[in-house]
Amino acid sequence: MKFSCTQENLLQGLSMVSHITGKNINLPVLGNVLIKAEKTGIQLHTTNLEISVSCSIRGKVDEDGEYSVPAKVFMDFVNLLPSGKVEFVLKEDGLEVVSSDQETVMRGMPASEFPLLPKLQKNHTFTLKAADVKRAVSRVVFSVSMSESRPELSGVACFFNSSGNEGKVALVATDSYRLAEHLIGSGDSGKQTTILVPARAMSEIQRIISSYKDEIEPPEEVGWSVSDNQLVVSYGAVELTTRLIEATFPDYQNIIPSDFKTHVVLSRSELQKAVKTASLFSRKEINDVHITIDPETGICSVESSDEGTGKTKSQLKGEVTGEANSVVLNFKYLTDGLNAFDTDKVKLAIIGAMSPMLILPEKAEDADYRYLVMPIRQ
User: Fold this and answer.
1) Which of 92, 236, 370, 378 places its Cα 20 to 30 Å from the Cα of 347?
2) Alpha-carbon distance 143 to 199, whole Å?
3) Domain span holding position 156
4) CA–CA separation, 237 vs 227, rounded Å?
5) Considering the chain, what is the average pLDDT of its residues?
6) 378 domain residue, yes or no
7) 285 lies in the same domain as 325
8) Can you tell me the distance from the alpha carbon of 306 to that of 87, in angstroms, rounded to the nearest whole number?
């Protein structure tokens, strides 16, 4: 194997693929990046057996070949190289790297020990705007359950062209205490498809889109292909393959109420500050904050109390419609939801103390996102 490329291109490629590698006592090769040099170009591959990421980089290949080297050491080493041309030659004692006046030999493992990477047929392909995917994932992935006891809640459900959402994709996540849904316009009103993507893979997709760099401009679209219980996500020169979760996501539409007794529109920043203040005085085991709505005064009160730390009460002026109401919520779940919005104002929709509360954008035309929080029942 003999090839050359620029330090900048190699570092960019390694930043795309090396994030999923890690130490594995039983399979140390999973901490490596596989370098494949072919006449068609140079490819970098990593896998943790659940997710695999590959990235093509520009360069000149003189002799075909493949070899794997420790990903973290290789990336740290390349990061320290001067910008410009880097040459690689595979020799008996390892991979020789020549850059400027520096010569280094990196010892790794033969490509034959690297896990076989699946070659999937790309069926049911959908194309989504990269900016939409990045925004949607950031708004829902934190609601995924961290418990392994319920696999159906351990990923983000993607509903392509679901009933009532033709031409759209709904990304939904829940841990049974809160639920987040974000709608993306796909422009494709074709076949209905539902997949359940592991949270780690979703976060990796978001990271790749966020950190991808191109000399000209980053690609605007992300390709999604579903095949044999696997998902392939393509973005520019990067391709991520992940296993899908084989479980049925709950019928979440039945969880979200449609009729509410009270609505209040509030400044998002003021509500965030009030909730943060109340969190300081909430009961540590419960994390409770009490929200009370008074339609006569248009005041929303956010309060908490604890025998050990004291009590606090913030009063926010809002636009209230409906009847007087109150609900007790976990401040952590409430804060996560408020942080996910990017509007100046939010609307709280409340039924009562025993029912979930819905957070929505103030304006109906911005209603691509909604967040549901279950109450703490007293």
Assistant:
1) 378
2) 10
3) 126-252
4) 20
5) 92
6) no
7) yes
8) 65
